[in-house]
Design brief:
Elements lengths: L1 H23 L5 E11 L2 E11 L2 E5 L10 E6 L2 E2 L3 E7 L2 E6 L5 H19 L6
Antiparallel strand pairs: 1-2, 1-4, 2-3, 3-7, 4-5, 4-6, 6-7
Length: 128
């Protein structure tokens, strides 16, 4: 019973925190689910960008890959994001807040490229 209760409260706190973050966002997040390369602490970093917005993104990596406050720079499809900082880490997932903003047209381009790539994969074609 204790484990279940602890899991419930941990899950509740995480869900509540995610809702607080979502309500404070000033721009819409676009799902990407794209493996990207970045740099953190002068070393390469490989993560999956789960979603992206003008002000930040959610990434997935190996457990323990980042700590709150660490700086990171990502390169998505050849486009550098603004420098960002990890603002939350929860297991394999982490949130990055960019110091600047990504232009909405760039985010829309990345999102549309990902849609084209998924569509091509569904047809068994090579994505450009």
């Amino acid at each position: 019973m204790e484990i279940t209760t602890r899991h419930f409260f941990t899950s509740f706190r995480h869900d509540t925190r995610m809702k607080e973050i979502a309500s404070s966002r000033s721009s819409e997040r676009k799902p990407l689910e794209m493996l990207v390369k970045g740099r953190m602490r002068s070393r390469p970093l490989y993560v999956e960008v789960v979603d992206v917005s003008e002000g930040g993104c959610k990434v997935k990596g190996r457990a323990g890959f980042a700590e709150v406050g660490e700086s990171v720079l990502l390169r998505i499809k050849g486009i550098h994001t603004p420098v960002g900082k990890f603002v939350w880490v929860d297991g394999k997932y982490a949130g990055i807040a960019f110091d600047g903003k990504m232009h909405p047209a760039v985010i829309e381009h990345l999102y549309n490229e990902r849609l084209r790539q998924k569509k091509a994969q569904g047809r068994g074609e090579k994505a450009a």
